[in-house]
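Section 3.1: Structural characterization of target chains.
Under the original work plan, the team committed to producing a structural model for every single-chain target entering the pipeline before any wet-lab resources were allocated. The record below documents one such target. The sequence was received from the expression subgroup and is listed exactly as submitted; it comprises 441 residues.
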Amino acid sequence: MTVSVGQEGLWLTHQLAPDSPAYNVVLAVRLRDRVDTARLQRALTALATRHELLRSRFPAGEEGPVRVTVPADAVRLDVRQVPDAGDEELFRLAQRAGQEPFRLAEEVAFRAVLLRRAEDDAVLVTVTHHIVSDATSQWLLVRDLFAAYEGTDTVSSEPVDWDRYVLGEREFIDSPRGRRAVEHWRGVCAGLGPAELPADRPRTAERTLSGATVELDVGAATADRLREAAARHALTPFAWLLGTFQAALHRLGAGDGFLIGCPATTRFTPQSRQAVGYYVNALPMAARFTPDTTLLAAVQDAQSQLRSGLAHARLPVELLDSGGPLFRISCTLVAADRLPIPGLYEGPVRLGGLRAELCDVPQQEGQLDLTAEVLQGSRDFKAVLRYNTDLFDAATIERFRDTWLRLLEASLDTPDARAAEVSLVAQDDLAFLLALGAGAP
């Protein structure tokens, strides 16, 4: 069976670092009621029957990776008894389960681990390799798993066949629309290289995938102001965040013109919106700054880039002959308030009749120099900054986080301020430093 262009790229990356968990996609839930493991195994078999990528492995063929499916009942629930684990240890065990590497040639790219502390207390860790899923997929599979556990069906139509999706991708690439998309992206990327922040350590010739995470919490008050400002200027909140993200890169040494990536969904049909799969293409976003570029202009340009990019999102940009990576930094939106399990992101819910709450474990660290995942809740915004620890110290990424937040707040206060002239020191801190310099007690 065939693979998509994006899947082939992920497979090649896996060959270079087969022990890395950087491309493991994890969703873990704490279950506060008794779990019937036999029933959960039957639900797991039903899930793997429905979504064939979850029972697929990826050995090497004559011309690259091929996809091979196994029987659905070969996907087994891994039950681990951890009766003596405290809450912190249970969290560490969940994180460790999510970091166990996949052997894509020999085993399916999906596993489910139940860490059982007591009859009515467990953590279910669902892990996929990115080659078979994306952020939406992980929530879809958990939704469908617990629907099968409860004996209900939340979806009226069957997901699309993956081979059909791959065929559609190839037909698009060879079509006039595909050729126009190639020309569009060549125009976007012309004369620009990937954004790079000044690193704490030199980049090595061998690509590394070691990572860590820093978080940014926008806060409810700033989130309300962001939504109001975006609506007033006919922009999206994410475009506003993306534009200020690019401005932060500009201010901290990425240069006046550069490219970053913006992963976007390729779920263009009702069937694909209910399917587990790698439905993602990364869109190159071009940023250009002059001394006169205002924060509002940067945000408006980000919105324009997003709109034109989404119109050409079906093309895998891996096909562009760039002579190197198009981008080393990315920024993406996860609309947590619209994910397939309403409420789980923000608090406890019931799944399959069981009380459940999100166990938010670190994951997908080190894929690029820096990735920003913007989580949009019903009230607030949060950003997860994942970075390569072979390049950066935590303090460097914390400084970037603070700069991004400072420019975001400045863009809401004075959107016509020039991006290059905004003070990166908050007013309260500036007053303190001035007083300190003047010898005030």
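Residues 394-413 form the longest helix (20 residues).
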